[in-house]
Amino acid sequence: MATKHEQILQHILTLEIGHKISVRQIAKVLNVSEGTAYRAIKEAENQGIVSTIERVGTIRIERKKKENFERLTFAEVINIVDGQVLGGRKGLHKTLNKFVIGAMQLDAMMRYTEAGSLLIVGNRVKAHQLAISEGAAVLITGGFDATDEIKKLADDKELPLMSTSYDTFTVAAMINRAIYDQLIKKEIVFVGDIYTPYNKSFYMYTKERLHRWYELNEQSEHTRFPVVDEKERIIGMITSKDVIGKDESLPVDKVMTKNPIVVQEKTSLAYVAHMMVWEGIEVVPVADASQKLQGIVSRQDVLKALQQVQRQPQVGETIEDIVSRNLQAAGDDETSFQVQVTPQMTNQLGTLSNGVFTALMTEASSRLLLYYKKGDLVVESLTVYFLKPVPIESILLIKPTLMEAGRIYAKIDIEVYNGRKMVGKGLLMAQLIDR
To answer: Does the keyword Electron transport apply (predicted)?
Structure first.
């Protein structure tokens, strides 16, 4: 039987897109406490099936697919620009295909405005009316209101009519930035993208006997299996260490390891990879908010995904992407690297930021290990000494030196020069993921 938390999530999924949701309403319909309803609604928001808007409330939205991740809903737009809804609340769940800046003559503006778009415009009443009539939403800038006639038209067409105190071009920049951030998020691989689902996973029940472990070991070649109770909630893990030397007729719950490490579908690939190396484990169970087994993620799944990510073209750039793109081999020496300090790498004082400094050291160390065919690194610790500030447009020479390297670890000394002056020094300890 599903828990109250699961019942609430299932109930929310049955609601129509655009339906307004409240804690009190959910608590009353499903006969649960308001605290339980609140936590379930927050979980639904994390899963991307509801959105909360100030002065409007929480509404049911369609969960975004990975291929449409860069598109924003009107509900997200209103939060981005800190605006208010004047009309057409029932359309807030809809997705905008493009936005148009209304800084042109009316006839020219309407050539670009079409159904599913968003017109960003100031206090131009005729433009508001024509855009909504064409099936477009409207965002009024400068803090202006709309006429009652246009509010009614927006309600009838179920197209959001919104207002913000920001000016038109600031709003356009904010929405552009949000779309760019979505593109970066789109590239992040989560456990939910790679894990083996529940119906294809190997696991054991608490009352099964140890001989079952040997059967699963032969079928899967894994040595770790989640242990679940009668409601299929994860309560333990059983490994080869737990089984060896034990009577095969013993029940699993007598020898399993309790309170195991679990991850959720929204856990990032990078975190799981780091944890598997750190803990030295080959399989991690995937659970939902109520600890119910959703599947497993294996070391093979993680390594395959990491290799695939490295082959993908980048769309939205992070600081690490900028560092990686600008870092080049220093002439013929493939173990030393150089980089020019760009404006994006600096702090408010116009000098190289500490975060970028450490990213440069990490990237140079990673390339050194690849040169020696040691594999990818997971940083365990990094001690950095910032000796001198580095001005914008400086050309840095980064010299990593491999001091020690074992099968699963490495120690690297890093020196950073600006011209002939040493500006920084670091000592990096890393664990290795063999390619």
So the answer is: no
Angle at which helix 354-371 crosses helix 319-326, to 10 degrees, equals 50
How many Å apart are CA 146 and CA 137, to the nearest integer?
Answer: 13
- Domain spans in the chain, listed from the N-terminal domain onward: 4-60, 66-187, 192-307, 319-433
Q: What radius of gyration do the chain's Cα atoms show?
A: 27
Whether pTM > 0.85 for this model: the answer is no
Which CATH architecture describes the domain 4-60?
Orthogonal Bundle (1.10)
Tally the C-alpha atoms within 13 A of residue 209's C-alpha that lie toward its C-beta.
5
Please tell me the total number of residues recorded for the chain in this structure. 435
Single-letter code of the amino acid located at 324: S
Do residues 286 and 294 touch, judged by C-beta distance below 8 A? yes
pLDDT tens for the chain, 435 residues long, are 567 777 888 888 888 877 888 888 888 888 888 888 888 888 888 777 887 766 667 888 776 544 444 467 888 888 888 889 999 988 888 888 788 888 778 887 888 888 888 999 888 999 999 999 999 999 999 889 999 999 999 999 999 999 999 888 788 888 877 776 665 555 567 888 788 887 888 899 988 999 899 998 888 878 889 999 988 899 999 988 888 888 888 888 888 988 888 988 888 887 888 788 777 788 899 998 788 899 999 888 887 777 665 554 444 456 777 788 889 998 888 899 999 998 888 887 888 998 899 999 999 999 998 888 777 788 889 999 999 999 988 999 999 999 988 888 899 999 999 999 999 999 999 888 765
The pair of three-digit structure tokens given for residue 328, joined into one six-digit string: 């080049």
Report DSSP state, residue 78.
Answer: H
Locate the DSSP E strands across 50-147.
Answer: 50-53, 57-60, 84-87, 98-101, 117-121, 137-140
Cα–Cα dist 398/73, whole Å: 44
CA distance 211 to 252: 9
CATH of domain 192-307: 3.10.580.10
How far apart are the C-alpha atoms of 323 and 340, rounded to whole Å? 10
Helix (H) or strand (E) holding 325: helix 319-326
Residue 65 DSSP label: P
Alpha-carbon distance of 238 to 252, in angstroms, equals: 8
All residues at 6 or more sequence positions from 53 whose CB lies less than 8 Å from its CB, including other chains: 59, 75, 78, 79, 85, 92
Number of neighbours of residue 51 by Cβ within 10 angstroms: 22
Q: Compute the C-alpha angle 355/269/356, nearest 5°.
A: 10
Pair of tokens at residue 191:
């456990």
